[in-house]
Amino acid sequence: MITQKSGSIINIGSMSGRIVNWPFRHSAYNVSKAGVHMLTKALATEWAEHNIRVNAIAPGYIRTELTDDVLRDHPDVVRDYWEKGAVAKPHWLCG
């Protein structure tokens, strides 16, 4: 990308990289996603001179096998998301 002087990178962050998602105890996940957000900012600044765009999307809850237990076990926490239709499906992130 630097050689061709253009490009675009899209990183997958998470709302959990920006907020403490209580009562879930996922500190390692939260810290790793916070790192993705900071890496995105740093690379966007560093590579702007090469016309390379670096962005991140930070979705909320996404319905996958990994989140099914959380969504089932904590309906009180995610109820508002369900009612607003805000629990995403993986294919919603593509495009």
Short summary of the structure?
This protein is 41% helix and 13% strand. It is an alpha+beta fold and 95 residues long. The protein has two domains: 1-59, no CATH class; 62-90, no CATH class.
Describe this structure in words.
- With 95 residues, the protein is α+β, with helices and mostly antiparallel strands.
- Helix content is 41%, strand content 13%.
- Strands 1-2 form a two-stranded parallel ribbon.
- The longest helix has 21 residues, at 27-47.
- The two termini are 21 Å apart.
For the structure shown, list the relevant keywords:
3 helices, 95 residues, alpha+beta, two-stranded parallel ribbon
Low-pLDDT runs: none
- Give the helix/strand class: alpha+beta
What's the total number of strands? Answer: 2
Mean pLDDT: 86
> What share of residues is helical?
40-55%
- Global morphology: elongated
Percentage of residues in DSSP E strands: 5-15%
What is the end-to-end distance? 21 Å
Domain tally = 2
The biggest beta sheet reads: 2 strands, parallel
The rounded Rg comes to 16 Å
Q: Count the helices. How many? A: 3
SSE order: EHEHH
Give me the side-by-side strand order of the main sheet: 1-2
Write the layout of secondary structure elements.
Blueprint: E1 7-12, H1 27-47, E2 52-57, H2 65-73, H3 75-83
